[in-house]
Amino acid sequence: MHRIRRRNHWGSAGHPLAVCICGLWALVFAAGVCGATGDSFGKDVYLSGFVSQGYLNTSDNDFLVPRSVNGTAEFFDAALIVSANPLDRLRVGMQLLARNFGDTGNDRVIVDWAYGDYRWRDVLGFRAGKVKMPYGLYNEGRDVDALRTAVFLPQSVYPEKLRDFVLAYQGAGAYGSLELGAVGELDYHGYGGTLSVPDPAQGFWSDLYSAQAKDFEAEVGRQVDRDQGLPEGTSAATFQEITSPNVSFPWIWGGGLIWNTPLSGLRVGSTFMNGRFHYRSTLRYSVEIPTTGELNYQVVPYNIDVDQTQNIDNFFTASLEYTLDDLQLAAEYHSSKVGADETDGWYAQANYRFTDLISLGTYYAVAYGDKNDRHGDALESGGLPRYYAWQKDLTASARLDLKSFWLLKVEYHFIDGVNLTEPRSLSELLAEPLERHWGMFTAKTTFLF
Amino acid sequence: MRRRLGSGGAAATSLGVLLIGVALIFTGSGVQAASGEIVVIANPDVTLDDIAPKFLERIYLGKRTRWDDDRTIVPVMLKAGPTHEEFVETYLERSVHRFVTYWRQLVFTGKGVPPKSFGDEQALVAYVAGTAGAIGYVSEGNVAAGVKILRVR
């Protein structure tokens, strides 16, 4: 069976550049027209954006991007944000994003978010389109370096590998802010729809399923032996590639609550998301079968069609943040259950802005790949070291605000464990174990406008 | 943090130029020194005479967008300077840096845009005087005819 590899160049949620630009200028034009009609219409179009370039290098183990041990400058973001008020109570906006982060993005311009926002009352508004997802306290602003001291948000709660699909939902939501008098105020946001995956042929999904496909090589060989009536262990299968990958989320729903307490600077929040995940692809193997002819073996293709559906039963966070003048403290817990896999993690962080120029920050983040095997007992019984069960990350960050529009960050991560490293097959892990104690250096500069 | 365009004139700027020339866009603006107590002012069509500090905070954080009679609130602010700093720290109970970061988060997530800002207190007063539903703040010495003073209590 031969299939033509289908590259979804613009991604399932992306759009051709021409459409993006047309949309952008349509917004500008619409607001310009409205602006000329009178004071009852909003008049302003707001443009903002940023350009970032970073570098990262791990001492051992590949993390966040492939081949990070060699160091990489494939760490670039540029965003252009446009918003306008074409009508009273109605706001429309969109963000175009070009991103190159290892194997993901590759500088393609995508619509990162785009939505209309009808604010009927302050206690109830509606959003529809591709909307930033409430997930923890910082997911909605995760791409904006100016909002935090660290280069990377703690990976135990905000894993970079999942960024593309937790950033925004496609659908509709309701939101609002309710004054509670002496007990503070409550911000809320509930939604339903689907999630998008810009390019399932690249990055996390491809790496994950490729690693699993390699683990299936022995079983493919046994299957061919059975099909051909050969003794077990005769045929040898080698995984070649994934073709026609398709990742979809038929439906999701969720929401978030943030309680701004009467104590100024203290807020407490929680978010959750449920949904369904669907993966389809074809795994292509080549199988060597010994023969008795002139050639002593023949190579035959063997394909496996994957059609997998899993429930996302609970994607949950609990959050706490306290800000006092230039000090910010935060802690968050995250857990998720996707199919039979249950993971969790948490972090605690402190940031302090010493002067207009210098801010320093630190966090300690812990991630567990299996919340029922935090100490790695099951992994050890399978032949892997216990430290594959966790990743504990002590990070120190420095941020320099060189100008109001220009900032520079440097950061070092002291890491114990390898649970969040790039996906590898079991055979690769057994053959070449990862280092338990390792580090990551990263630097990034950002221009805002 | 943002660039404000008029009714289409500057809209001819291309995406490429915007992404490449960001460092050239932002420049500082002139500000005035405070001369006296901070006064909260509003357009005379605003029916309130007193305003609660919490109400004021919610307006400047973009959480309150309507007056009690359901008309649109149009908050304006100063770009920088001691009057601005004192207003933000006193009535919004946060540092200017935190206030800027708060609005950056809303801008970069499409949730809102910050209040229109002025580098000159007289210009702010003139805007409030001529804009229905507008509210702003200036130092006491810069209050002029055409606006009403709201007592914060």
| Helix count, DSSP H or I runs of 4 or more residues of chain B | 5
Mean pLDDT of chain B: 80
- Largest interface summary: A-B, 62 and 42 residues
- Label the overall shape of chain B: globular
Biggest pleated sheet of chain B: 6 strands, mixed
Q: Can you tell me the CATH topology of chain B?
A: D-Maltodextrin-Binding Protein, domain 2
- Which residues of chain B sit in consecutive blocks of at least 5 with pLDDT less than 50? 1-35
Tally of alpha and pi helices of chain A: 6
What distance separates the N and C termini of chain A? Answer: 52 Å
Question: At CATH's second level, what is the architecture of chain A?
Answer: Beta Barrel
> Order of strands in the sheet with the most strands of chain A?
1-2-3-4-5-6-7-8-9-10-11-12-13-14-15-16
Give the total of domains of chain A. 1
Whole-angstrom Rg of chain A: 24 Å
Round the mean pLDDT of chain A to the nearest integer and report it: 86
> How much helix, percentage-wise, in residues of chain A?
10-25%
From the 3D coordinates, which CATH architecture of chain B would you assign? Answer: 3-Layer(aba) Sandwich
- From the helix content, strand content and strand pairing of chain A, which structural class follows? mainly beta
Write the CATH homologous superfamily of chain A.
Porin
Radius of gyration of chain B: 16 Å
- End-to-end gap of chain B: 32 Å
Please provide a written account of the structure:
With 449 residues, chain A is mainly β. Chain A has one domain (17-448): Beta Barrel (Porin). Chain A is built from six helices and 16 strands. Chain A has helices at 17-35, 163-166, 204-215, 217-228, 377-381, 426-431; strands at residues 45-58, 75-87, 90-101, 109-121, 124-132, 168-179, 185-195, 236-260, 266-290, 297-324, 327-338, 341-353, 358-368, 390-403, 406-417, 437-448. Chain B is of the alpha/beta class. Chain B has a single domain (30-152), classed as D-Maltodextrin-Binding Protein, domain 2 (3-Layer(aba) Sandwich). Chain B contains five helices and seven strands, in the order E-H-E-E-H-E-H-H-E-H-E-E. Classes of the chains: A mainly beta (449), B alpha/beta (153).
